[in-house]
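Sequence in, structure out.
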Amino acid sequence: MGGPVPQKRMPRILVVDDNEENAALMSQLLQARGYHVRVVHHAPDAEREIATNLPDLILLDVIMPGKNGYELCRELKADPKTRLIPLVMITGLTDREDKIRGIQAGADDFLNKPIFPEELFARVGSLLKLKEFTDELESAEDVLCTLGLSVEARDPYTEGHCERLARYATELGRQLGLDEDSLVALRRGGFLHDLGKITVPDEILKKGANLTPREWEIMKQHPITGEMICRPLKSLRQVLPIIRNHHEHWNGTGYPDGLRGEQIPLLARVLQVADVYDALITERPYKPALAHDDAAGTMRHEADLGLWDPNLVKEFLAMRRREQAA
């Protein structure tokens, strides 16, 4: 016989309303349905509560003293940690322009005062179902990232590579002024770039150098395989070019597509430079670890030969120089 079926966690709802009567009414209605409800009355209290315990849904009053609902909504939707939390704006305003302001701030839905229980339950239930789907997608991404780490774990010489690569690439992306979605893609790319190596046999993967032509052809398939594994998740669409193209060369001699120059997607080039640096400063069975200055010299030389984007190599090495001087 199987064990007991785990109980599903009831969603957490945060009510933000400076009107204590309205807040109490919504809290009572939602708690009667079994939801876990927290009530705060001002934006700063909401920010502290969200930082401590992420809710599954936020009911946010528009008119509050100090920071109003529009401003708080805009900030939450701009933050990668909170942008996917469904947010319902509660308003007594009926003007069309007010609703447009809410939409522009990123609100997912609206409720007009006075609150009608059945409408409250319908909107909350619908958005929580959407949040559940979003969480399932994030769980799928986590599984893929774990698989990426399992590829790394097959070779003791690459321990910590994914984490370092994600950090280097994200730091370089930030220096280049890339947007937050691109930085998230670079971090994910650090863990997923070599996912396709999961199908490469150990005797090839751990050989490192002196591969036979047949072994090399097998190895060169891993960017395509990794892209195919991740393609079903639409949330990884910005990561796919990183996975497929991080072995392309600036002069067109790379694989799998023989792209050259700016044909190679920028995010792939960013991660590629970080990848090369980490490979050079890490000991492998077929080579010793290089000191930073030697690695920098090698990267400049290889950029001159046409392997890497010379401008990104320059930016990356300048970034590392500043970090080491700090």
